Design the sequence.
């Protein structure tokens, strides 16, 4: 093989690999189903959360508090405080979620009432099917 044809072959291989390197992400982006999010759900039997009580679980690797409010039904909120990430607890006596670290108070809907938390708690969709509560 002559030197010139060898270099042409090498250049061709390099060009092809470069082309594939850029084409593959484009193909993955445009292919159907590439962005379909995996549907995550958590099922909790209704019997585990009597009215007025709260239940701790995790949803998508996030600690979650599911509250069975007598008037507002089931509410699922992230327990991760938006200040510095401590885990909030439900205080039934005042019907609030309270952060033990710096005292942030949240309503049962996750809105900040007081304290240093800069944003509300994340809220997750809840549905009731038969005897189960489904988060997600
Ligand atoms: S971490 Fe919750 S108030 Fe600071």
Sequence:
């Amino acid at each position: 093989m002559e030197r010139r044809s060898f270099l042409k072959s090498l250049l061709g291989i390099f060009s092809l690999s470069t082309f594939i390197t850029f084409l593959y992400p484009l193909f993955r982006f445009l292919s159907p189903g590439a962005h379909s999010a995996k549907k995550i759900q958590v099922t909790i039997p209704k019997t585990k959360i009597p009215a007025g009580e709260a239940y701790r679980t995790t949803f998508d690797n996030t600690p979650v508090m599911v509250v069975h409010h007598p008037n507002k039904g089931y509410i699922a909120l992230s327990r991760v405080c938006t200040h510095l990430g401590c885990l909030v607890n439900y205080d039934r006596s005042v019907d609030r979620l309270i952060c033990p670290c710096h005292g942030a108070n949240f309503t049962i809907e996750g809105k900040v009432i007081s304290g240093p938390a800069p944003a509300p708690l994340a809220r997750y969709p809840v549905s009731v099917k038969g005897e189960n509560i489904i988060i997600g």
